[in-house]
């Protein structure tokens, strides 16, 4: 279980001023749960993920994973980033097997375990390819296989599909849901795409911006595997959109030079969220 209790995080800026990125954030994620953290760019999503990953230990409040304070990165918490991070000089098989080297497992066994994960993401025909010979979706599937081979308890995903086209993203959603249902991993998925968050998650934590707080939590009680035509999903999407509208207006105003700028009515209440990938 992951438990945040009144976690605040400040960054020192170059001009010496202190910037409050997270303000007393509290939430819990149960073992085996699929939770998304959703919010506009700059609201502190990656900051939360980095704290859980153990990349950053400078915060106030308490963060516990299975009752223990996080001191450093560990293989029970593996991260998949937007940029796949595969080594370009290694094949898919070598990339996926790479993390097992430190575990002192023989080469033959490493390759067998890697092939198992590669098959699970349906890349077995491409195991001998180099990353630059793969499509964007294939690279992300290889990155997921490389994370899963460490058999982490928690999979941390920071906008893993944000750079993919819409069709590829839909395929990856199914693949990730399959993996999650099969493995029972705890997944924290970060996105600024409302549809993606709702489609995948048991719960969506919506963040507000500057400083980042958890604004509201939405349970998504739709049946699994998810069906994109399920009206319940659309209902939750609409509720989240309403919850986020004023946050988005705040962000956009900050990025405009005109203080009196205001959004046209209904800008964010359009029911077609299909294109929200780059939206918020
Ligand atoms: N290392 C850092 N130093 C200073 N400011 C940072 C640093 N990392 C993040 N920030 C600031 O903290 C805020 C939250 O960042 P981040 O968590 O990356 O947002 P998100 O992932 O939601 O887009 C942003 O305003 C960002 O500029
Ligand atoms: Mg981020």
3D structure, described in words:
This protein has seven helices and ten strands. The protein has 280 residues and is an alpha/beta fold. It has two domains: 2-76 and 153-278, Rossmann fold (3-Layer(aba) Sandwich); 84-151, no CATH class. The chain is globular. The protein binds adenosine-5'-diphosphate (ADP) and magnesium ion. Residues 45-46, 158 line the site of magnesium ion.
Outline the fold blueprint.
Elements: E1 2-12, E2 18-29, E3 34-38, H1 45-53, E4 60-65, E5 68-69, E6 77-80, H2 92-98, H3 107-120, H4 136-148, E7 154-158, H5 166-183, E8 186-191, H6 194-200, E9 203-208, E10 213-219, H7 231-255
Helix pairs in contact: 2-3, 2-4, 3-4, 6-7
The structure holds adenosine-5'-diphosphate and magnesium ion.
Number of beta strands: 10
Q: What is the count of structural domains?
A: 2
Name the CATH superfamily classification of the largest domain: P-loop containing nucleotide triphosphate hydrolases
Estimate percent helicity: 25-40%
In whole angstroms, the N-to-C terminal distance is 29 Å
CATH class of the largest domain: Alpha Beta
Small molecules bound in the structure, each named once? adenosine-5'-diphosphate, magnesium ion
Q: What can be said about the biggest beta sheet?
A: 6 strands, mixed
User: Would you identify the regions where 5 or more consecutive residues have pLDDT less than 50?
Assistant: 270-279
Mean pLDDT equals: 91
Structural class: alpha/beta
Using only C-alpha atoms, the radius of gyration works out to: 19 Å
Main β-sheet, spatial strand arrangement: 6-7-8-3-9-10
**Number of discrete helical segments:** 7
Shape: globular
């Amino acid at each position: 279980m992951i438990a945040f209790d009144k976690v605040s995080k400040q960054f020192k800026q170059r001009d010496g001023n202190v910037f409050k990125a997270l303000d007393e954030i509290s939430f819990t994620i149960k073992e085996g749960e699929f939770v998304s953290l959703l919010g506009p760019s700059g609201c502190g999503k990656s900051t939360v993920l980095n704290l859980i990953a153990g990349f950053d230990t400078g915060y106030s409040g308490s963060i516990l994973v299975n009752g223990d304070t996080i001191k450093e990165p560990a293989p029970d918490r593996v991260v998949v980033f937007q940029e796949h991070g595969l080594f370009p000089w290694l094949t898919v098989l070598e990339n996926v097997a790479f993390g097992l080297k430190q575990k002192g497992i023989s080469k033959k066994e490493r390759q067998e375990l890697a092939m198992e994960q590669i098959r699970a993401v349906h890349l077995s025909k491409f195991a001998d390819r180099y990353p630059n010979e793969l499509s964007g979706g294939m690279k992300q599937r290889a990155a997921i296989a490389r994370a899963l081979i460490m058999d982490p308890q928690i999979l941390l995903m920071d906008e893993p599909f944000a750079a993919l086209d819409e069709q590829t993203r839909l395929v990856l959603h199914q693949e990730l849901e399959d993996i999650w249902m099969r493995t029972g991993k705890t997944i924290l998925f970060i996105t600024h795409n409302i549809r993606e968050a709702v489609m995948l998650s048991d719960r969506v934590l919506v963040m507000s911006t500057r400083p980042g707080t958890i604004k509201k939590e939405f349970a998504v009680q739709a049946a699994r595997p998810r069906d994109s035509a399920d009206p319940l999903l659309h209902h939750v999407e609409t509720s989240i959109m309403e919850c986020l509208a004023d946050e988005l207006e705040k962000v956009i105003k900050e990025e405009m030079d005109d203080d009196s700028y205001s959004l046209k009515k209904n800008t964010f209440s359009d029911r077609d969220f299909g294109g929200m990938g780059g939206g918020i």
